[in-house]
Amino acid sequence: MSHALTDLAISELRELAANVLRRLGVEPPEPGELTARTPITGGELLTLRASTTAEVDAAIARADTAFRAWRTVPAPQRAAVVRRLSALLTEHLDDLGELVTLEAGKIGPEARGEVQEMIDVCEFAIGLSRQLYGRTMPSERPGHRLMETWHPLGVVGVISAFNFPVAVWAWNTAIALVCGDTVVWKPSETTPLTALACHGLLRRAARDVGADPEVHQLIQGAAAVGEQLVDDARVALVSATGSVRMGQLVAPRVAARFGRCLLELGGNNAAIVTPSADLELATRGIVFAAAGTAGQRCTTLRRLIAHADVAEPLLDRISSAYRQLRVGNPLEEGVLVGPLVDARAYDGMRAALDRALTDGGEVVCGGERIEGPDENAFYVRPAVVRMPAQTAVVREETFAPILYVLTYHDLEEAIELHNAVPQGLSSSIFTQNQREAERFLAADGSDCGIANVNIGTSGAEIGGAFGGEKQTGGGRESGSDSWKAYMRRATNTVNYSTELPLAQGIRFE
Ligand code: NAD
Q1: Which residue, of 19, 54, 192, 360, has the greatest Cβ tally within 10 A?
Q2: Per its UniProt entry, which superkingdom is the organism in (predicted)?
Q3: Whose CA is nearest to atom 30 of ligand 1?
């Protein structure tokens, strides 16, 4: 589809959505109170029913029953479902990507990249199914064996955010399934159609390989539906991705029933650019991380901390790149910045820019709204704002494309500024000086879960553990040993002797 922004018609997008859903094998849902909108025009694609309290309860019950059998299926066999899912995702990569664009407003390459990330994590999970390693350790007692084994945990409740409507689900679900858990998914109420599609593909994958499709349940609706999942004692782990505000509500409720929580919350990511940095490379990394996905990634670069000697030439390069960014219809090739998700996101951006100006900030470029096809569509030029200090608005996460620029003179000062925010997700340093790079990665360097050198803050690979510290919630998902969050550990001591020695040499005779 190639259209001037102002000519886009919702009727065309509705038809596009209907065709994609058909290709993905999704039955038209029963109309209801939940509205699936496209940020491309702000218009309604279709409506569907939110899950009732009884339906949520029944979904959890089905997942709980399915778990009892699923946990005994050998992990490499459980992986067959994920292998089939990966094949279906590969077959429907473009379809699902198009649906992500329609529902979340991501540009085509990023939307397809998100589906590719799902495929990548499926492959990781398949390999993992043969590597759920426990450990053995020397026992202090003769004739004894001491070891740790990992077992399936139970029902995993997945609550996901609008901005990664499919990848975050796959990170959780592919790993949880090979670990022997079952899943109840509460997607964002902003992206119910991608959820229907993923749920359909997974159930189809399960049926295709002769596994129980009830291992996956979908419940739809707003916060109240999520709250029911959070409060249900049958849900062993609540893996929640979204704002810090949501995490602050969810974590105490799960803790109150001694459930487990895996939190992936907001970030306020920064990059330090030192005098030795390759400014050309830094500019490319910064522009993708700050303006990509219209600033709506948890890892979006929101703060640039540039050495005073390079700040001006760097800003010249960044502003010149920003002026060339095409903002517009994300379905159109060549567009690099799509719409904000909704009016609230736009209002949040406006309010943050006003506060930054009141604090003495100066807009270097961008920040203005571009006329879209409808007053309910929100297209903006990504903004760069030079700040005199790291004021309150800079320390908050505004989920929109605003890059605040701060300057420093000494690396210690830069690291202090870098860490002086409540969130701790992603971070980078651009430098060609190894001492500076190592200083940034050291224990008293970046305090984030992700710390990069000479690449931006966004666009993580699935192989590493993903997540952040402080108000980002401390959870880790995706690669490395994140799987341990989805399993329970048992320590086993086996006595193969004829004696019964006690640990610590205790005698009880
Ligand atoms: P949000 O917090 O508004 O909603 C996220 C999900 O939580 C939705 O499904 C929502 O319905 C649900 N929810 C909200 N309140 C709830 C409650 N009280 N109980 C149970 N569920 C509840 O976030 P959003 O606007 O969809 O997404 C943007 C936010 O997510 C940003 O802050 C972003 O940084 C963050 N995010 C973090 C990561 C990460 O991995 N760290 C990834 C993606 C997004």
Answers
A1: 192
A2: Bacteria
A3: 242
